[in-house]
Design goal:
Helix content: 10-25%
Radius of gyration: 16 Å
Largest sheet: 7 strands, mixed
Distance between the termini: 34 Å
Number of helices: 5
Strand order of the largest sheet: 4-3-2-5-7-9-8
């Protein structure tokens, strides 16, 4: 099951132009100049934000009007694709990114693909609505809400989790959200080898 809410709020940040605070908070972990994949990009708030910081961004969305607004943004490549109709993945199978960004969108079948799109050292930044949101507003269908720990389960054994939250926010409106920042290790950890230092301070 899938759910898409470009105009909703997630993680305590507005979806109308302002980048998500969660995305901004962890963006320092993205390799400088590394390519970014913005999935269900909508009006392109994150595509614009990363492009403005020197990243080449591929922005995927089904809405032609939204992508048309991104067509002239330097550093952004809009890609129109319906990720829910069973069509083939719109990018080359070998294409990899320094970051994959998803907000306010849930397509459970796509989660393994998003992890696969990460280059070594790449960052998955994901946040969307979670179970409990049915008590405060939309979306309310359980099929469209992440279960507790679901993002953790999606990356278990494949990515190193830097940060994870599952809870309730009040700004800019009441919502239950789940979000994760996870990294594809450059190499497996080995005994006696110092682990990577993921700066939590931002």
């Amino acid at each position: 099951m899938t759910h898409l809410l470009h105009d909703a709020a997630s993680g305590g940040t507005p979806a109308s132009g302002e980048p998500s605070r969660w995305i901004v908070r962890w963006s320092h972990l993205v390799a400088p100049g590394g390519a970014v994949l913005d999935v269900a990009a909508g009006a392109g708030r994150h595509a614009r934000w990363f492009a403005g910081r020197g990243h080449e961004v591929v922005a995927i969305d089904v809405a032609q009007a939204a992508l048309a607004a991104l067509a002239g943004v330097h550093g952004v490549t809009p890609v129109r694709a319906d990720l829910e109709d069973g069509s083939a993945w719109p990018l080359a199978e070998t294409e990899r990114f320094a970051a994959v960004v998803v907000t306010n969108y849930l397509n459970r079948a796509l989660l393994p693909r998003l992890v696969q799109c990460l280059a070594p050292g790449g960052i998955l930044l994901y946040e969307t609505f979670a179970r409990g949101n049915e008590t405060v507003g939309r979306p309310s269908n359980p099929a469209f809400l992440l279960e507790p720990g679901e993002l953790l389960a999606a990356v278990h054994g494949r990515l190193s989790v830097v940060a994870y939250e599952n809870g309730y926010v009040t700004e800019p409106r009441s919502a239950f959200v789940q979000r994760i920042c996870a990294v594809l290790p450059v190499q497996p950890l080995a005994a006696g080898v110092a682990p990577p230092r993921y700066d939590l301070a931002g």
